[in-house]
């Protein structure tokens, strides 16, 4: 199945829209919030509450987050503008609200770096170098043209 996410259909849009500008300059997710984001990134499609809880509680001895914290986590992530809730048409559980990330895992990683207190744009080359340093088997010659292309797309 292919899902097309339209921010126009997202609930947060009703309250002012999606923007990369956040209320707080730096948002540090709790372990449970990060687990929810990981779950949504890995799903690759919007999930409803039942689907999320099935995955989160797959290992009852080690759940991704507490069952009772679902709404708090979801509401926090919507408030941070990290996820959106989409309303499906039609009655029944199959048509419940679905949740999807508004930023990719890589955008989140970049946001964590770019919103730290002492970050400056001039740090970017050293950050990229550090990523190469700590990434096993990174082929710099292969990746440098891809980095240049990715930077061009950001303009």
Entry summary:
It is built from 6 helices and 3 strands, in the order αβααββααα. With 155 residues, it is mainly alpha-helical.
SS field, number of helical segments: 6
Mean pLDDT: 83
What kind of oligomer do you see? single chain
Mass-distribution shape: elongated
Strand content: 5-15%
Low-confidence stretches: 1-23
Helix content: 40-55%
- Give the C-alpha Rg: 18 Å
Structural category is: mainly alpha
Q: Would you list the SSEs in sequence order as H and E?
A: HEHHEEHHH
Give structural notes.
The protein is mainly α and 155 residues long. The chain has helices at 31-43, 49-56, 70-79, 105-114, 124-134, 140-154; strands at 47-48, 83-86, 98-101. The protein has a three-stranded antiparallel beta sheet. Helix 1 crosses helix 3. Residues 1-23 have low confidence and may be disordered.
Based on the model shown, name its key terms.
single chain, 155 residues, mainly alpha, three-stranded antiparallel β-sheet, disordered N terminus
Can you lay out the helices and strands and say which pair or pack?
Blueprint (H helix, E strand, L loop, with lengths): L30 H13 L3 E2 H8 L13 H10 L3 E4 L11 E4 L3 H10 L9 H11 L5 H15 L1
Antiparallel strand pairs: 1-3, 2-3
